[in-house]
Design brief:
mainly alpha
Amino acid sequence: MDALPTSLADYGPAALSAVVVGVYLVVGEPVVGAVLHRRFEGRLRTDAGARRSFYARLLVLEWGLALLALVIWLSAPGVDAAAVGLRWPDGWPGPVAGGLALLVVVLVVASTRALRGGALAQLPVRAEGEGRHAELPGHATLAVLPRTPAERRLFTAVGLTAGICEEWLYRGFFLAVLSAVTTGLPGWALVAAAAVAFGLAHVYQGVGGVVVTGVLGAVMAVLYLDTRSLLLPVLLHALIDLRFLAVPDRALPSAGVR
């Protein structure tokens, strides 16, 4: 992607701040995410508002970090909007990116049908003393999924926020900073870095979650680099998260997740 910066000098006085936030996304975010989820799990059995409170914290943290990255970018004199994906796509994705995006959409539709059919209710829920909930590989824990209308409204905001903020942070902002620090990595290396960083950010989901989100991070990076825009990755990312709104409450395991 020729619009990406190839020198930290492009960031001017914002260079150090850009690097600090970039390092935080790889090193700090996994720790913060794990701590937040552990605290949420601890409150779940005794606090009826635990999910709503957790959603609210996610919204504040993601938007806060996204706005911080936006301010840093606005302070970078040599990094224009095209360098961070804030533009309309050049055109339709190419064969590889388009094929990957289509595959993700097909998998989203198939998984949504399975979820609506009660697939989650068939998953084993850990017994008392083995943990507070069962895990859903590749996404958040089952405990995070909304149960009430109020929770569903907040979860909608969380899903949209993830699509917007995480694509901005892990594709637009992070890849631009990484390209500047390394004086221009080739495309395949940027895709690999995006996969690793995004997978690590979901370490609270376990090994399976890291692998699945890492693969999705790579797909989003390919789509972003191919179209030179964050628009399609944002839409696809939001679709992936919001599919859980199609899951009726009765389809969720009832034990250990309320």
